[in-house]
Amino acid sequence: MRIALIGDYNEAVVAHQAIPLALALSAKTLKIHIEYEWLPTDAIQSLSSYDAIWCVPGSPYRDMNGALSAIRYARENLIPFLGTCGGFQHAILEFARNVLLLKESNHMESNPHTSLPLIVPLVCSLKNSKGVILLKDGSNIKKIHNQESIEEDFNCNFGVNPNLQYLLEKNSFIDITGLDSDGNIRVIELTDHPFFIATLYQPERSALKGITHPLITAFLEAGYK
User: Fold this and answer.
1) Fold of 2-224
2) pLDDT tens for residues 23-55?
3) DSSP E strands, 20-168
């Protein structure tokens, strides 16, 4: 099984240190052999040889369009996809631009003067913090965890603009499946895709404590089928 890691590798980024460990733990659980490759956002060529695509933390990416194109490829070709932190933010942007046709939607970290700020600074930073997420009944993420709520590790300063959240809520192809206690989006899934989950939190960080994360295991399992 081959996995494309979409992001600009930086050994100083904690999530980038954790991801190989998280993949190894889940692969061991599933008893499968995996290979992964870091693909810089400004040098992505073909993705056809990969069984799964993970858009990883570390934004702003060197090439936002490269990241968005990879996410679009996973969405349109039904390739198992996981987006965490920056990958979550850009998965939402890709859907907004190419499905909702909100071409001006943007990320304020990359374009602070955008006319349609879909991804904005969080009112309260989630830098190196933990938070509780309430999971939607019937969702894939709830089936994976088999519990009503989860507590996860965050390391981000940006999230979905609460004033524009309704743009996502009114579309049947995107499902908001994880919220914090204030109703802010923390997990999204696509309803017409076999496995497309994006989280604002960073499940990979559990590997730094030697813990196998069920979401990453489910991601690998989806790509291995």
Assistant:
1) Rossmann fold (3.40.50)
2) 999 999 999 999 999 999 999 999 999 999 999
3) 35-39, 52-55, 81-84, 105-107, 116-135, 149-160
